[in-house]
Amino acid sequence: MLAELSLIVAYTFIFGSMYLGIALGFTLTTGVLRVFNLAYGAIFLIAVYGTWMFWNDLGFGLIESIVLAIALVSLFTYAVYRIVILKFAELEDYMLAALVAVFVIIEELIAYAYPEIVGVYLPTTIYGELVSFGEANVPGQYVVTAFVSLAMLAVYLLFFTRTKNGFIMRAISQDMFASKLVGVNFNRTFALAMIIASIPPAIIMLLISPIWALNPYIGWSVFTIAILVAVLGGLGNLKGSVIAAYIIGLIQASVGFMLDPRLMLLVALVVVMAVLIVRPKGLARAETIW
Amino acid sequence: MLKISNLTKRFGGIIAVNDVSFKIEKGEIVGLIGPNGAGKTTLINLISGFYSPDNGKIEFNGQDITKKRMNERAKLGIARTFQNPRVISNMTAHMNVLYAILGSEYGKGMTMTEAGAEAIYYLDLFGLLKKRDVLAGDLAIYELRLLELARALALKPKLLLIDEAMAGLNPVEAEAVSKLINRIRSEFDLTIMWIEHVLKVLMRSAERVLVMHYGRLIADGKPEDVVRRPEVVEAYIGEEEV
């Protein structure tokens, strides 16, 4: 029982932190741009398959490949902003359809170039040993991923509370109209938000890729987690996302070790739905990024 | 400084602003009056870029700004206040003014600390220093009006558009706001276009008054002359006072 409890506590921390990292960027774009970025799932794919392409196919070193893949992810999100979000700014339905189309196009391109049978594997393990947590032993790479995720949250918080651009993004997230009155350059701020939003999910995906089996369709399952966290937290609210990530982590860890691992996602979905029936706007009270 | 030519704005079958033309010279303080529904706020909305006109042209310092967006006009030096103050209610008074500074051209080169100190200066100017850490949403209407003015002034505007700064204020507060507007006008070399529903508020401040009725500009002149014109008196029939 003690071992089970240790596992649940350890994996609540691991899953919660990891899911937070996955959802950070989605929360940022929802909070600042007020856009439900359905192309977000493509970021996970471009991060890992981009790194694989630069490293395995083009012969770059691993670190250079990771840097190039993250640059590619940033370029992709900037292009999504310029070509899709700006273009369909006044036509939200068309924008959402176009964003899904972008995601599927990227997914199919990757599935064509690197079918599942290719067996993509990235040696991005930082710590391959087991780590003791009370009575439980957990993979060290998971623990590294959790701490990197928390470090990225800290960077986000410093950015929002200590920098001019962060302050401007917070203000836009609270009142876009008032922002227009003071002459803020929206295009520049939105483009910056899109790029900043793409980095945490890319890094988290690279860190967990040695543990998770990669395939060209993994983007949807990871994206589902990002949506769950963001929606439960209250769309676009970072504080809410932090709480939501650990609630979902707790649910999944409890279900995984006490019921059946195959029910982890299903139970999380049902619980989130139940919470949303009571609190349709999620857990956060304020419709702001922070 | 500001040249409006044949400006028209329709909402469905209603012509809110109908073929309006006038000029405002640098340093003028121009009152804009008219009965309810005359089109005063729509005109301000057109000048500040909140609405796009159906016809006509808006020039600011010789530049055609008719198609420029609201934030671009703010950058050029057009600031405004609202009849119902539009501040960021979840941010403190200080943060609201700080945000305006950071969004402005001159604020680009400032650090957060420098911009913060600048924001304090504007809060102090409007007597809001003690309210600096109060959320804007918790301020009284009088304080909100001052905060809007502080924020607008923090943009270092050339033209300030004021939409009914006295609405909801008691006579003492209205008098204080009026004095402050006159003070900032002379201290900051501002050009002001000021909507007030009741002309007597503007009599002491405005050198010139424009009168609108049913979307049209029906009078333009010195306040004491304008109020005697038959068309202005007729427009105000049924109103409480001119």
Helix percentage range of chain A: over 70%
Write down the domain tally of chain A.
Answer: 1
In total, the number of domains of chain B comes to: 2
**Helix tally of chain B?**
9
Query: What's the CATH architecture name of the largest domain in chain B?
Result: 3-Layer(aba) Sandwich
Helix content of chain B: 25-40%
Q: What do the pLDDT scores of chain B average to?
A: 89
Determine the mean pLDDT of chain A.
92
Shape descriptor of chain A reads globular
Which structural class matches the secondary elements of chain B?
alpha/beta
By oligomeric state, this entry counts as heterodimer
Which runs of chain A of at least 5 residues are low in confidence (pLDDT < 50)?
none
Report the span from N to C terminus of chain B: 29 Å
Radius of gyration of chain B: 18 Å
* Principal-axis shape of chain B: globular
Please state how the strands of the largest beta sheet of chain B are arranged side by side. Answer: 6-7-8-3-9-10
In CATH, the architecture of chain A is: Orthogonal Bundle
- Rg on CA atoms of chain A, Å: 19 Å
Terminal CA distance of chain A reads: 39 Å
Short summary:
The complex is a heterodimer of chains A (290) and B (242). Chain A is mostly helical and 290 residues long.
Question: Please, could you describe this protein's structure?
Answer:
The complex is a heterodimer of chains A (290) and B (242). Chain A is built from eleven helices and two strands, in the order H-H-H-H-E-E-H-H-H-H-H-H-H. In chain A, strand 1 and strand 2 form a beta hairpin. Chain A has helices at residues 2-33, 41-57, 62-85, 92-113, 140-162, 164-174, 176-181, 186-208, 218-233, 238-258, 264-278, and strands at residues 130-133, 136-139. Chain B has two domains: 1-77 and 157-242, P-loop containing nucleotide triphosphate hydrolases (Rossmann fold), CATH 3.40.50; 87-155, no CATH class. In chain B, the strands form two sheets. A six-stranded mixed β-sheet of chain B has the order 6-7-8-3-9-10, sandwiched between helices. Chain B has a four-stranded antiparallel β-sheet with strand order 2-1-4-5, with helices on one face. In chain B, strand 9 and strand 10 form a beta hairpin. Chain B is globular, with a radius of gyration of 18 Å. The model of chain B has no long low-confidence stretch (mean pLDDT 89). Chains A and B meet through helix 6 and helix 7 of A and helix 2 and helix 3 of B.
